[in-house]
From TrEMBL:
<keyword id="KW-0560">Oxidoreductase</keyword>
<keyword id="KW-0408">Iron</keyword>
<dbReference type="Pfam" id="PF14226">
    <property type="entry name" value="DIOX_N"/>
</dbReference>
<keyword id="KW-0479">Metal-binding</keyword>
<dbReference type="GO" id="GO:0046872">
    <property type="term" value="F:metal ion binding"/>
</dbReference>
<keyword id="KW-0223">Dioxygenase</keyword>
<dbReference type="InterPro" id="IPR044861">
    <property type="entry name" value="IPNS-like_FE2OG_OXY"/>
</dbReference>
<dbReference type="Pfam" id="PF03171">
    <property type="entry name" value="2OG-FeII_Oxy"/>
</dbReference>
<comment type="similarity">
    <text>Belongs to the iron/ascorbate-dependent oxidoreductase family.</text>
</comment>
<dbReference type="GO" id="GO:0051213">
    <property type="term" value="F:dioxygenase activity"/>
</dbReference>
<feature type="domain" description="Fe2OG dioxygenase">
    <location>
        <begin position="208"/>
        <end position="307"/>
    </location>
</feature>
<protein>
    <submittedName>
        <fullName>Oxoglutarate/iron-dependent dioxygenase</fullName>
    </submittedName>
</protein>
<dbReference type="InterPro" id="IPR005123">
    <property type="entry name" value="Oxoglu/Fe-dep_dioxygenase_dom"/>
</dbReference>
<dbReference type="InterPro" id="IPR026992">
    <property type="entry name" value="DIOX_N"/>
</dbReference>
Length: 359
């Protein structure tokens, strides 16, 4: 009880500053507050001393060549990565390097604005399309994460430009336009990787929704005590992530935490829970996390391709064409909002929310 009271008091103090994790660093703290402390057993990489024979490299796939024979190779590589890793990186994906650099710089600009500017975007209105949030898990019992974030809902109902802060307005609009175009290409390739018609995922409205979360990870004085983001899976069909050169992203592969190293100009693609559900476990939504760093700030831009968290009555279940007597449905049909409500309630509790919908 005493520990919980202490935690609540520390949390109250942190919230009252209204300056986020960046504010702690600006105050030149030398020790990470206890509300951020993560047990050492959780921070462990679980990495064996002898990794001989283990392939611990996240696949990198070149999307540049679109002729028929090259496309078949790309589809085969995506199929393999989606089935074994749930993660891959894409290069020559068509998003201009200037657009990638500008969105990273704009995220930095916003997070380095005066607190008075950022605090205008606190989540006071459920209808806001752009929200600044110090930490998504403020009121959970789990340790807090070493980051500040903002969220912007892009589709199906795009925000008015003036709803997005000037610091990142043009970059957000331009970058997400390219993400939607790349998402359409990736869904075609994933459809073909399932052995199905290239438009099936698009017809299921998998590309209908898009929201982005832009993280700012300040340098951490004691990175071995906390995490940038705790382990979790994504409530999306697909997630496209742009990370800067600092690194810290890890994916859980064969019970080992494997680094997803920054590759200049690349985008990280990972399978989300909804994709695992509709593919009946053929494509895997894998747990991942972000380590804290002494370097910083680290910038990342995550775009979640989903059918949205807003009212949506569409039922999603395993794709019928993938089912057979030998491969019956493993999940019941659900709506995305139904799934999301429960997912957000226990996002960092260390358990798979998707497993709750197994038949």
């Amino acid at each position: 009880m005493t520990e919980e009271i202490d935690r609540v008091n520390e949390l109250t103090d942190f919230i009252s500053t209204k300056t986020g994790v960046k504010g702690l660093v600006d105050a030149e703290i030398t020790e990470v507050p206890r509300i951020f402390h993560v047990p050492s057993s959780i921070l462990s990489n679980n990495r064996p001393s002898d990794i001989t024979g283990l392939n611990l490299t996240v696949p990198i796939i070149d999307l540049g060549d679109r002729n028929t024979s090259a496309r078949n190779v790309v589809v085969s590589k995506i199929k393999d990565a989606a089935e074994k890793w749930g993660f891959f990186q894409v290069i020559n994906h068509g998003v201009p390097l200037t657009v990638l650099e500008e969105i990273k710089e704009s995220v930095r600009r916003f997070h380095e604005e005066d607190p008075e500017v950022k605090n205008q975007y606190f989540p006071t209105d459920m209808n806001k399309r752009f929200v600044y949030n110090n930490n998504f898990n403020l009121y959970h019992s789990s340790p807090m994460n070493w980051r500040d974030s903002f969220t912007c809902y892009i589709a199906p109902d795009p925000p008015n430009p003036e709803e997005i802060p000037v610091a990142c307005r043009s970059a957000v609009i331009e970058y997400t336009k390219h993400v939607m175009e790349l998402g359409a290409v990736l869904f075609q390739l994933l459809s073909e990787a399932l052995g199905l018609d290239s438009e099936i995922l698009k017809r299921m409205d998998c590309l209908k929704g898009l929201f982005m979360i832009c993280h700012y990870y300040p340098p951490c004085p004691q990175p071995d005590l906390t995490l940038g983001i705790s382990k979790h899976t994504d409530n999306s069909f697909l997630t496209l992530l742009l990370q800067d050169q600092i690194g810290g992203l890890q994916v859980l592969h064969e019970d080992y935490w494997v680094d997803v190293p920054p590759v200049p100009g690349a985008l990280v693609v990972n399978i989300g829970d909804f994709m695992q559900l509709i593919t009946n476990d053929k494509f895997l939504s894998m747990e991942h996390r972000v380590r804290a760093n002494r370097e910083g700030p680290r910038i990342s831009v995550a775009c979640f391709v989903s059918s949205g968290v807003f009212p949506n009555s569409t039922l999603y279940g395993p794709i019928k064409e993938l089912l057979s007597d030998e491969n019956p449905a493993k999940y019941r049909d659900i709506t995305i909002p139904e799934y999301t409500v429960g997912y957000l309630a226990d996002i960092f509790d260390g358990k798979s929310h998707l497993s709750k919908f197994r038949i």
